Amino acid sequence: MDWAKAKNILIVAFIITNLFLLFNISKDLFIKEDLQLINDHYIENVEVLLNDNGIQLKTEIPREIISLPLLDFKYENLHNNEIIRSFLGTSYEVNNNIYTANEKQLSFESNKRLKFKKLSNEVVTYAINEKEAISLSEEFLNSKGLLKDDLSLTQVYFGTINDYDTAPLYKLVYNQTYRNRFLGESYAHVYVNHRGVIGLEAMLLKHEKTQTHRKKTIPASEALLKTMNDIVNDNENQEIVITSIEMGYYLNPYDIQLSDWKDIESGTAVPTWKITLENGKIYYAEALKN
């Protein structure tokens, strides 16, 4: 038997089956379009389809369908003398846009993305707990003028990140928000161990304008169906558990059809569903209704 051919046939059959189920589920989407409510039967069918594909839910599927405006943002210019002095002091060396001083390194990507790293081979002799890591992180961000009201801690990861240290450390993920909705690709990642903050990566946005017209969005259930195959393929042979589904905004710095993203100073953020897994992976699904 040609096993490769048989495998391809099974994959095609799986895709066709999912498309058929998706069509039958979607036709019962609304109780009444003018009420903008999700049919209970539709939600149940989506849950069954997710379960059949090995995806568990540890959160409710949002039922509301809302209309939101598009938002215009400008990237914060983090490449300035005040920022440099706050990280390195007044005495430092510059080579190929990389600033160094006292075993510290600071660099910028097109003025938008900031990267800071402590350069040290000190051997780890003791650990810190999560509470201490959070305290050190917030004290550090505040001292650099980056801990603003719209920046919130959303995730704490403990493990090995070879770019910063061979021993386990804490990675604290802060996400920027606008009117209590997340802003995708606007963040500060802080890396902490017993030596304090040993690394930071940040890219932040500044709101410029809210567009006048509101756009209708797809429901969360449809976003789940759109991302289901990607989630399954990315997490093959792993337990897949969805812990959060929320609506916010996403401005992808790489999804610009002009030139290099490094030349882009501003852009439009669109309503987007964010699906977070228990293993920390995040999936975005654009929510604008066609």
From TrEMBL:
Ranges for domain Regulatory protein YycH-like: 39-287
Parts of the chain that traverse the membrane: 6-25
The keyword Membrane is annotated on this UniProt entry: yes
Keywords (A to Z) from UniProt: Membrane, Transmembrane, Transmembrane helix
Gene Ontology cellular-component annotations: membrane
Domain of life of the source: Bacteria
InterPro entries (UniProt xref): YycI-like
Name recorded for this polypeptide: YycH protein
Lineage, uppermost ranks: Bacteria, Bacillati, Bacillota, Clostridia, Peptostreptococcales
